[in-house]
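Q: Could you fold this chain for me?
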Amino acid sequence: MLLVLTGVTVVSVALLAWVNELTKEPIAQANAKALNDAVNLVIPGFDNDPIAEKKMQEVNGVEYAVYPATKGGEYIGAAVEASSMGFGGELKILVGFDAQGNILNYSLLSHSETPGLGSKADVWFKEGGKGDITGMNPGESPLAVSKDGGKVDAITASTITSRAFLNAVNSAYAAFAGQEQTDSSTGATPQNVEQPADDAAVPASDAQ
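A: Sure. Below is the predicted structure, expressed as structure tokens.
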């Protein structure tokens, strides 16, 4: 019995390793395409390769991926990856900023929010949405929901998700500004932005 169980375990592990190796490359290609599409969405008009020119920017001990965009050799902005803990888990976004730090667009890369509620974050804050953040500059004032004294309308019945989303946007701007301050050749003029509060400070009584 012991030999049979050992044999089954060895075969199972070998099969799992084989399947993992078989699917690793297709998954990597799919992820690369998804990222490329997201970069093109949030900061259009560039003629360089932002992904190949990716820079890692550290802010308060956390590293963020920054994808600088240029057109005709002139810096036009950057796309920045950032994440925050939402109601159901990690919420990861890619935010596009112009050279002055104004928000151009964003893409919700992944999330674990409630379907029909927090999942609305993929469109709620876009141009034309009820919580439209395009054109805003977190350097002038960190983004916050109206319930917290900010100017952004939270997703209906999803205050926690909305706070997490805006925290991620503020973090993305902090990385964007930090990258600009370490690269004077870009010509951008970022402004200071306060770091978002820890998600643990979100009142547990707030409805998702």
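A (continued): Strands lie at 55-59, 62-71, 74-85, 90-98, 103-110.
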